[in-house]
Structure formats: structure tokens, C-alpha cells
User: Fold Glycosyltransferase from Actinomarinicola tropica.
Amino acid sequence: MRTLVVLPTYQEAENIEEVLGRVRRAVPDADVLVVDDGSPDGTADLAEAVGARLGGVSVLRRPGKAGLGSAYRAGFAVGLREGYEALVEMDSDLSHDPDALPQLLAALDGGADLVIGSRYVPGGAIPNWATHRLLLSRWGNRYAATVLGLPVRDATAGFRAYRATMLARIPLRGVRADGYAFQIEMAYAVARRGGTIVEVPIAFTDRVRGTSKMSGRIVVEAMLLVTWWGVRDRILRRAPDVA
Ligand SMILES: Nc1nc2c(ncn2[C@@H]2O[C@H](COP(=O)(O)OP(=O)(O)O[C@H]3O[C@H](CO)[C@@H](O)[C@H](O)[C@@H]3O)[C@@H](O)[C@H]2O)c(=O)[nH]1
Assistant:
């Protein structure tokens, strides 16, 4: 499958060279698109320089920080326009191991519409997370699965491969959420369209360099949106445009 790996970056100068090298080695036939939001630390320039050396890497420069979900929507739009058959999303801070990419793509080849690199299926792991973050993530995932009837253990995971034909059926402009909610909304959108979702176990290693951009606002956004989608779809029974 013609594959595009979308790497969103904000202030990842310390990680970009290593992640690009490892992605290119893990899936040499795939192309890579870095979506950078004007990182003041020069991530985009570095990505361009490293990309010119490695080949198969392009950089989409955006003027300012617009959020993770918005960066993926922009990257997916490019991928769909250019006719890629598989679109991958992953963090650029090495918390997602590029060596797991072939496994994700194999599951897509096997017929899945969305493959999630999952921390919460047997074999999945998060070796170095603080207990409070683990509890929040587990609770959030249970809440989303219950409220939405979503048959996914790790709906907030950000390591994924989408079949382009499925992604093309989701009106991305209508997807508003960011952060965790973006991931849940997209999984829910695939499930509502009858898509096949497969979870493959991965180890999520918290970043060693740089800082997370997640915030309390993103957690609250996810909780409120999931609650609203549940009310809208299960109580009001209104067919939504997107998810
Ligand atoms: N272009 C762009 N990139 C961004 C932005 N915000 C974050 N990123 C990039 O998106 C990736 C993830 O950002 P982090 O801030 O490190 O996220 P996290 O807290 O580790 O969250 C990860 O795990 C969550 C589940 O636990 C996931 O829900 C989430 O999608 C992500 O994978 C990194 O490559 C970061 O540079 C933004 O506004 N714009």
C-alpha cells in the first residue's frame, strides 16, 4: 500500500532527526510528512535538512500552533489529495516506536480500516508512566467506550494507521476536537461507518526529550465532548455529520 506517515511537530528539534531516521529505516517504502506549527526551536528547518539527506520526507509549514487534531487533519488532506492508500499518525517524540510500523500496516493489509497501536490489549504496555496519568488514561478510555458503545480499548491512542478509503468518508473539516478527543472522535467516526478497527499491542514509552503539549484543557474537552456525543446519539438519537 502506498503509505504516508504524518508526523505532527511542535518544538521537537531534539527528537526530529532520530524519529525521521528510524521511520525511514522501519518502512523504507513509505513517505513522511512533517506538519510543523511554526516551532520556535527550528524543528521545520531541521526536518527539511534531515529529510533532504534521507529522501522521501516533506515538510508542511503552518504559521502557528493550532493543535494536534488540526495538524493531522491538514496532513490527512495532503495524503488523500496525493492518492496515498494508507495514512499513519504517530508522535514525533519517540514515544511510539517506529519499529512497530510494519505490524500496524500488516493489519491494514489484512483488511482493517483503522489499526490502533494499543496500550490496553494483552501485550501492550506503558513502562514509564506516572500512576496518575495511567489512571486518567484508563478511566478516560473506559468512560468513552461505555458512553459511546465503542468497541475499542485504547481510543485515545495516537499511533494509528487508516485506510485512505475510510478516511475519505469522514468529513474532516467537521472534526473539531483536538488532543485525546480528536483520537476518540476519529475512532468513533470509523465505528459508526461500520469500519473494521483492529488493535495491535504496542509499548508507549513516555518521551525522554522535550515536553508534552497536553493540558488540563484537552482532558476537559475530551470529557465534555464524549458526554455530548453520548447524549446526542443515544438519548436524542440525532444523526451527526461527523462522528
Ligand atoms: N503540529 C503540531 N504538532 C503538535 C501540536 N501539539 C502537539 N504536537 C505534536 O504531537 C505529538 C504528541 O504531542 P504530545 O504533547 O507529546 O502528546 P502526549 O501528551 O504524549 O499525547 C500523546 O498520547 C495521547 C494518549 O495518551 C494521545 O491522545 C495523543 O494523540 C498523543 O499521541 C508530538 O509529536 C508533538 O510535537 C500542535 O499544536 N501542532
